[in-house]
Amino acid sequence: MKITKRRLLEGGAAAIATSLFAPGAWAQRTGGDAAWPTKPVRILVGFPAGASPDLAARAIAEPLSKILRQPVTVENKPGASGNLVAAEVAKATDDHTIGALINGNLTIAKLLNPSLGFDPEKDFAPIGLIGTAPLVLVVSGAATGKSAADLLLWVRNLGSAGKYGTPGVGTVGHLGMELLKSRAAITAQHKPYTGNPQVIAGILAGEIQLALLPPGLAMPHVKSGKLKAIGVTSPERSPLVNELPTIRDADVRGADLEIWTALAAPASMKPAAVTRLNAALVEVISSPEVSGELLKTGWQAQPGSPDALAKRMRADTTRLGGVIIMKGIHSEA
């Protein structure tokens, strides 16, 4: 078998992911306090009120408080794409502070910026996923063609004169698009913006021609005809946007990607507390009321174990870590 640069780099990312998130690593810890929690539980969110991770945290906070029989509060501390909050959660020692963190915080953050004040390998105890969502590959409404195949051909024909927008270097939108480019013979160049609303404005103004966007932001413009959707990046069609095919349906393989929000605790949290939190979280997001609320705010509920979250962390670190290494991407966030 020929050893290519791509295979070598992806293998390196896989090795990193394996070392970072060995299955059941935290489950081997012992001890705990069956009486937990003994005081209010804080969920820290590294984004402003009304942002997607904030909405997910607020959807589960009150139901969690009923099960845990303690107040569960949500505190917003925006900054550095959630990494400031991730660092605070990692250092928390009160056994009652957790974070609603996005996939970037729990997977690739350290690969993008080795000087960060936390390390996913050592500093977190995964609790469980809250919800997942695909990204939607959109192009300018001026793109010719109607089918996904026709629209992809239009993008390919732009060559390197084409531009794609993202909310910043090292974001999932950036890494996801570089992954997609490598799988779909696209050569469009990166233009970073300060946020997804600015990305959309850039497409509408003709500054860029394509982007990966969350469904809630993309679909109003798709339905109005200002943007055209090629498909979603999830392996299967998403209940968030049932009407859209997957990019797999356009014969683009190996570019599956979802964004997600999960609960994570400091590595120092007692195992009994982590176990109870996971059980409570699974009960909450499995309920029709909360899963329905999550769907309204752009998340598909994903109840599961800490091991399931760790598996997701490893997979994302491998997939996107390969892109980071291959493209030499660095971020100061």
Low-pLDDT sequence parts: 22-33
CATH class of the largest domain: Alpha Beta
The secondary-structure class comes to: alpha/beta
User: Termini distance?
Assistant: 39 Å
Beta fraction: 15-25%
Whole-number mean pLDDT:
90
CATH architecture of the largest domain, by name, is: 3-Layer(aba) Sandwich
Question: Helix fraction?
Answer: 40-55%
Main-sheet strand order equals 2-1-3-10-4-11
Major sheet characteristics: 6 strands, mixed
Q: Give the tally of β-strands.
A: 11
Taken together, the total number of domains comes to 2
User: How big is the Rg?
Assistant: 20 Å
Quaternary state of this entry equals single chain
The helix count comes to 13
Question: What do we call the CATH topology of the largest domain?
Answer: D-Maltodextrin-Binding Protein, domain 2
TL;DR?
This protein is of the alpha/beta class and 333 residues long. The chain is built from 13 helices and 11 strands.
Give a verbal description of the structure.
The protein has two domains: 5-133 and 259-327, Bordetella uptake gene, domain 1 (D-Maltodextrin-Binding Protein, domain 2, 3-Layer(aba) Sandwich), CATH 3.40.190; 136-250, D-Maltodextrin-Binding Protein, domain 2, CATH 3.40.190. Helices cover 43% and strands 18% of the residues. It has 13 helices and eleven strands. The chain has helices at 5-20, 52-68, 83-91, 103-106, 109-112, 120-123, 148-158, 172-184, 196-204, 215-224, 271-286, 288-296, 306-327, and strands spanning 41-45, 72-76, 97-102, 124-134, 136-140, 163-166, 189-192, 210-213, 227-232, 258-266, 300-301. A six-stranded mixed sheet has the order 2-1-3-10-4-11, sandwiched between helices. The protein has a five-stranded mixed sheet with strand order 7-6-8-5-9, sandwiched between helices. Helix 1 runs antiparallel to helix 13, helix 2 (52-68) crosses helix 11 (271-286) and helix 8 crosses helix 13. The protein starts with a helix and ends in a 6-residue tail after the last helix. Residues 22-33 have low confidence and may be disordered. Belongs to the UPF0065 (bug) family. Residues 1-27 form the signal peptide.
